[in-house]
Amino acid sequence: MAFILPALPYAYDALEPFIDTTTMQIHHGKHHQAYVDNLNKAIAGTANEGKSLEELVKAAGSISPAVRNNGGGHWNHTFFWESLTNKKLDKLPGHIAGGINLIFGSFDAFKEKFANAAMTRFGSGWAWLIVTSDGKLEVTSTPNQDNPLMDVAEHKGTPLLGVDVWEHAYYLKYQNKRADYLAAFWNIINWEKVDQRYAEAK
Fold first, then answer.
1. Is 6 in a helix, a strand, or coil?
2. Which residue, 85, 142, 168, 173, shows the most beta carbons closer than 10 Å to its own?
3. Rounded alpha-carbon distances, angstroms, from residue 192 to 76, 98, 104, 186
4. Comparing C-alpha atoms, which of 92, 198, 54 is closest to residue 135?
5. Could you give phi then psi for residue 9, rounded to 5 degrees?
6. Helix 33-43 and helix 65-82: axis angle, to 10°?
7. Residue 121, strand partner residues
């Protein structure tokens, strides 16, 4: 079966004022939809047709650039939407809070490292919090629509949190002020989902 665009787990205006409604409509309905459509075209009639999205992503080094880029775009955006929420928490859930404090020393130190990975990613790409194969938390970044699940990733692991730093993710509201977008991002992270992913990955 062909891949389809997943519905958002919230309304387009749910993340206001941190991510504006128009950006969400275009980012999800246009950009993400294009990745899905182009992925379906790229795999049609090939040996990759019928494979799961995760199978395609993990084999990025041995598939065509069209499948790698659009498969990564589809996976990354689906993951990104699920990482966001308008629900506020008084404190981080215990598992991820403990892991962050253990590896980074404090939440503020983690925020600084994560923001730096996002700010120093040249051009388009993503910053990630991952669990490595030995169970440790690590901050990394990837270019374009690559992600840490890919066999071509410089730092491999299971993603727990990712932020899109392609300009289409923030330009309508923040223009070229990536730092302002990243500062707003901390207000809409779905830490319950991150904690769940961490528990499953350990």
1. coil
2. 142
3. 18, 14, 19, 14
4. 198
5. -80, 15
6. 140
7. none
